[in-house]
Amino acid sequence: MTERASFVLNREDIPAAQSIMLKLATLGYSERLVGNRLGLKDLTDLQWRASPVYRSERLSNRDPLALAIDLFLLQGSLPGNELGQLFSQSECETFRRCGLLEVDDTGRTRARASLFPAGTRLIFSDHAWPALPHPGYPTAPHDHVMSVGRDSRNLLNCVPRRKFSSALDLCTGSGIHALLATRHTQHVLAVDINPRAAQCTRFNTQISGAANLEVVVGDLFDPIGNGRFDLITANPPFVPSPLNNLTFRDGGPSGEDVQKRIVAGLPHHLAPGGIAQIVTELGERDREPLTHRLREWLNGAPMDIYMLRLGEHSALKYAIGHSKGDDYQDVLDSTLEWSRNLQSQGYVRMVSLLISFQWSDVRCGSPWSRIDQSPPPHRTAGAEIDAAFLSERSTRIGGWPDILHRSSLRLAGPIALLDAHVAGRDLRAKTTATLLGQALTIKHQLDHVEREILNQVEEKGHIPAIDLLKIFHERAVHLPSVLEATRTLLRYNLVRIDGCEVSAQ
């Protein structure tokens, strides 16, 4: 069993450690280049079962980048001659003092932590696959620091990378979201109840050179008093687990023990004009909208909610995915235990979500909730999240139809239209529209009025709204139907109009 990383960086080793990190980045240790080297579209597709295939087919040319990937991402080991190609003797000694490298009984060097390229940062954490022979834990320790996985990447791709004065990252783990926020935020505070996670975040902060990040150990909002923040991010424990044996994963039998407290605290800690974002999973019950649960947790606070459904699994498939055991019967018993827990909560499916909150704009009426569905983004989508809030408010502000009458309408960009017909049936074709060139692939099924509006705008390129309304009046289409169709196209950013602007708050 390999000892876990200590995540300790002595002051005198900081310059040398930072130099090593720069060297790794220069080698090409980045999301794009590492993914390309392994033949992956996205690093979330990395599979531990495929590690011998990666080594034999993708890393057979043992250049320094291949060696770094094998050592720090695939949990491999390097013989002395290969280690010498990657690091000098002094660099090896620096990383050994940091608790990142160790030499086994055969003389091969292993990493005691994994290193993940994430956005513009390189992030250390505990190993992604603790049960592999290296490090060899039958079960992950309770204080295991979560690796950079799919949920982490979903959140990092959806955070608006605009300027903020202050940011708070809850359940910070390795500190990935806090560190990314330091690039565009004056002061960042990272909080985790797990002291080992806080230690890991401090280590990543030091080795990255970030000077505007503070790390504290504490329970969610407890360490911050009455503080308010422009950006709040969280990747909380959300798994509805019957076991409660992993701090970073298990959210109680419902999966909601931590995340509902985060949502309940947002009205007290989100600054006006700010945004809070949580990447999570929620159990879904039949005939119960997930937004109703969020509204209960907000306790009436006037906040707008934008929910992205990024994927889902049936309750049974989810239970099978989490079952563990030393033999066949143990696995079956574990599956039954997980399944019964989900059934006791009334969950029929588990939904992967990115949920964004902002304070409501009183000019736009009551707080609203919007739900869209998209595959997980593989590049930054923060501007699209901001655009969704803005488009909702632009079409809810009082008097917007009058603004529309004085404006012109145009396509927001290239749009893919997919017509679906049922062969042998005399039914109107259903058309799905998707704005191309976006990180989020959001499909909207058009009604016949919306489709005709797009046809008119595409034909003329830029049409005064008053002319468009006359066209539909001549076709005996009622004005409210045209206005509602235009509003829907604006909400989905399929069209834009000049003169209909409303600030983010």
Mean pLDDT: 91
Strand order of the largest sheet: 8-7-6-9-10-12-11-13
Low-confidence stretches: 500-505
CATH topology group of the largest domain: Rossmann fold
> Given the structure, what is the number of helices?
18
Termini distance? 54 Å
How many extended strands? 19
CATH class of the largest domain: Alpha Beta
**Radius of gyration, in angstroms, nearest whole number:** 25 Å
Strand content: 15-25%
CATH-defined superfamily of the largest domain:
Vaccinia Virus protein VP39
Count of discrete domains: 3
CATH structural architecture of the largest domain:
3-Layer(aba) Sandwich
Largest sheet: 8 strands, mixed
Helical fraction: 25-40%
Shape: globular
